[in-house]
Amino acid sequence: MIIYDYEACNGCQDCLNVCPRGVWEIDARNKKAKIVNPTRCIDCTACEFQCPVRAIRIERALIPKSPQIIGAPF
Amino acid sequence: MQKGWRYYACLMGAQLMWPKLAIKSEQGFFSFNEADSESPVLVTTDYYLTSFRVREAIEEQGLRCHLLVVDGRGINVWCGSRGGHVNTDSVLDAIEQTGLAELVTHRNIILPQLIASSVSKAVLADNGWKAIFGPVEISNVGDFIDNGFEKTRENSNVYFDLNARLENNIAHIVFETVMFLAMTPFFWLLAGFDGLLSSWFGYWWSNLLYIIIGAWTLGTFMAIVDPMMPTTSGYVRGLLTGVLALIVWKVLLLWLSIMSPLTYVYEPAWLDTSGLTILGLSLFVGFNWGGATPYMGEDQMIRDILAGLGTLVVLFALGVYFPLGVF
Question: Average pLDDT, stretch A52-68?
Fold first, then answer.
């Protein structure tokens, strides 16, 4: 399960560059990362480890849960 | 490049039997195609197959570059990274030991993308090195360098094509064969007990060859039909394949019985000894295969193990309480 702090994201795209499953995409309008394929996430934690502003956290849940996004305007 | 015994031992999954059997390649700094001090530096780990494939790709593409092979304890990049066997310190140690700062004039290193779970770009930057995550497949690294260290979205994603699946299946079936052979002494010990337990060794020993061939067939089937499976769960794949194999097996027995009624082999109860063996075997192969694919998350793995163990206990109980078969 992905916990993502939308407000903290600085749009550096490191998460896009390291995700091997295409979970992330860049929101061209707001210049911030957004989750486009949450079910493809395999908890490899690459995005969490590389995020320079620690906006991403990966938690392993026994029951699958949809991503929690903090501070998103939508 | 010449493929020696080490290459084939890696393909057969030597490291799966025992971590000490992992075949390592030489660590250090290597230059290709007359690379100079301005040529890019690629980084990889010391698992023999990984290092061999990287060198092969560099030579095939004729890249003028350097290669820094870091200590990854003989484990491939992705598993080593997620398992914490290679980390930022491994890369910094290799940089220090090879004296990389004196060998190149720039401060860029191209890391494999799949090492990103454990090698920190920020810590490398603090040490004066700019880390750039390259493409997933080494075959795309030439384009990556030509495009000024930019990669397409497709090159960031992991794909598991038929060749990779069949190659993976070799290690998979060798591993299962060794596991079944290793389980034989356990059944042999059970033969020393009275009653039901003593009959298990006879069943295991007389059917061991069929069980191994069955595991090979199921594993190869799963490798081929992998993209058609509706889920990434190893448990569901194992169960679906098992039900399909059971239907094929029973239809075959029925057909044989109709063709030659004198040797009547069809059992009306589907969950008899052979039926339960097929289902149990398929679940076992499904777990292993699911874990061998690059699309299975760790939480999915825990769910699979819990569901799989539960189902195996039910199959086991059915076998014990209904020795002549049920359903």
Answer: 89
Going by the DSSP 8-state scheme, the letter that residue B307 receives in this structure is: H
Model confidence over B134-154: pLDDT tens digits?
Answer: 999 999 999 999 999 999 988
User: Is A67 in a helix, a strand, or coil?
Assistant: coil
Interface test with A, best of B117, B149, B150, B231 (most A CBs within 10 A): B117
End-to-end Cα, chain A, rounded Å: 20
- Taking only the tens place, the pLDDT of each residue in A5-20 is 999 999 999 999 999 9
pLDDT of residue B208: 92
Closest by CA to A6, choosing from B73, B176, A26, is A26
pLDDT on residue B257: 87
Q: In angstroms, what is the C-alpha Rg of chain A?
A: 11
| A10-14, A36-40, B64-68, B193-197: least confidently modelled range | B193-197
Q: Which amino acid is at B43?
A: V
d(CA B283, CA B306): 12
Given pLDDT bands bounded at 50, 70 and 90, which one contains residue B28? Answer: very high
CA dihedral defined by B97, B98, B104, B107, rounded to 10 degrees? -40
Residue of A42, A45, A48, A51 for testing the chain B interface, max B β-carbons within 10 Å? A42
pLDDT at A74: 66
With bands split at pLDDT 50, 70 and 90, how would you rate the model's confidence at B202?
A: confident
Q: Which residues of A touch B299 (CB under 8 A)?
A: 1, 43, 60-62, 64
Q: CA nearest A59 in B: which residue?
A: B299
CA proximity to B275, closest of B300, B254, B247, B256: B247
From the CA of A16, how many Å to the nearest CA of chain B?
Answer: 8
Contact criterion met (CB < 8 Å) for A17 and B133: yes
Q: How far is A25 from chain B (nearest CA, A)?
A: 9
- The domain spans of chain B are 5-156, 162-321
Of B118, B122, B157, which is closest to A20 when you measure between CB atoms?
A: B157
For residue B298, give the nearest of A40, A43, A64 by CB distance. A43
Answer yes or no: do A49 and B296 touch at CB < 8 A: no
Enumerate domains of chain A plus CATH numbers.
2-70 (3.30.70.20)
CATH topology of domain B5-156: Rossmann fold (3.40.50)
